[in-house]
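Dear Dr. H.,

I hope your travels went smoothly. While you were away I took the liberty of generating a structure for the chain from your last submission, since the lab meeting agenda had it listed for discussion. I wanted you to have the full record in hand beforehand rather than looking at slides cold. The sequence, exactly as received, is reproduced here:
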Amino acid sequence: MPSTDADIIVLLNNASAQINRYFAIFIFLFGVIGNTFNILVLAQKPLRSNPCTWLFLMSSIAFLVSILAGIISRFLSTWEADLTNTNQFLCKLRIFLVFGSMTAGFWLIMLATVDRWLSSSINTNRRRLSTLKRAQRGAILILILSSLLQIQQLFCFEANLTNTPLKCYTKTVMCGIISDLCFALITIACPLFLMLIFGLMITSNLRQSRARLQPTSVTVDSCVMQNIAMTGSDSQSQQKRMDRHLLIMLFVQVIVLLIFTMPMAVSKLYTTITRNSVKSALQNTTESFVFNLFLLFLYIASGMPFYIYTLTGGRVFRRTLLNLLEAFTQKLMCQRD
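The corresponding predicted structure, in token form, is as follows:
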């Protein structure tokens, strides 16, 4: 091996170790804090009664599970303290939780996109389909199907492997192909593709709704008009504001998921296609470094929702968050007294 290649390999291995040690800790704190706040805020009564918000709540729980199960082993591995690398049970359990929860999280966001498409439709029958009960049933179905889909990981993954990006990895070529394709296509590509499709359909619904709004010229006493408007418009305008902010939150989250998850999907597909190719030590090290980096990008996407909702969720989300923090502060003050 040329000395230049050997130096690059050492450099990439050191860079990978430093990224997993320090960047992974940052993502862990970033994701756990964000998703915990998300769960606390979205679980409040004013928000959780909305089907889209309820799906956001369930996706935050799923993403929190994926971060807890996935990130901890990343920085523990840099100190040779990752038990999932050597313990078969922990290896299989970790992979099942990571893939299962991440799959559920992405598909729950996709279901939220479908709900917004239904609720924004000019068709009354479609709008009636956007209910909390249907959202809850859809979420349960997604959780069941995600778990069943990822059961194969319990048989395919094994600890103490060598010449693989991670020591806890697929044990055979066929297992690797199934796992990589399943993750790239079903966990990432398919829900993102459907999010984009329904996002375009939501935009079409909004355009149709605006086209149907026509100004009317009616001569009515101004005082009467003012009284009528004030009695019925408050709740409607508040609901419209919430729906508008939910759409913004959804669109931004879809874009973030697309940016941070597609590299991992492409990496998985590349690994599948080139699995039987003869590779040099430098190429294997480079691919392992890229895999570890894109894997952390994936966890960034799982930790982003709270910060997206805080920035784009409007006054409703931020006010609920502030009320929650104030109640928590008052509780602490009472305990001290």
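Two observations you may find useful: The chain is about 80% helix and 0% strand. Residues 2-210+242-331 form a domain with the Rhopdopsin 7-helix transmembrane proteins fold (CATH 1.20.1070.10).

With kind regards,
E. W.
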